[in-house]
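Q: Could you write out the predicted structure for this multi-component system? I'm mainly interested in how the pieces pack against one another.
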Amino acid sequence: GQNIDQPTEMTATEGAIVQINCTYQTSGFNGLFWYQQHAGEAPTFLSYNVLDGLEEKGRFSSFLSRSKGYSYLLLKELQMKDSASYLCAVGYSNYQLIWGAGTKLIIKP
Amino acid sequence: DAGITQSPRYKITETGRQVTLMCHQTWSHSYMFWYRQDLGHGLRLIYYSAAADITDKGEVPDGYVVSRSKTENFPLTLESATRSQTSVYFCASSEGLAGAAEQFFGPGTRLTVL
């Protein structure tokens, strides 16, 4: 099957930097999404990577390596409001979108 | 209001009852999706629709029925609810196919089956 692997939980300190990794199976890869989901709320879109490299959007950046089946989401200058789950989702050429179970990020003051 | 809405937001029902979850979007997006979200699992696709009157099964369709008579509405029916269908259900819409375009999610329906 097409498994998406990401850590279950991470803890970081306010003001610091954290990197959330995601690995996936490369066959048929079309693109990779990152979504943010606060507790009790709906997922909201953060980024979409199709090509290799780093895409920066303010405090958030997303990196993709297609050959390695690897992506990461980098969050800088962490704020308490960044406490949330971060979902990695991979689109495949059969128009399937496979979701990881999410990484719960806990920010400590 | 613009966007995507779901109703009810919370529902408690009993095993064997029929339940319908409603989803409405105002963007005229062609594609609509129903997911369930359970602890320890990623979002799992139940059904999706590419346009009015076009629906197809996702990863976990058993026990669910959908219809799409109008572009803006995509109701999900649990024909005979079971405890294993206790979950949070999200409806989403998109301008493009799954895996190729951003999806916009409704606020979710938390369903408990007793």
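A: Regarding packing and overall arrangement: Chain A has a mean pLDDT of 95.
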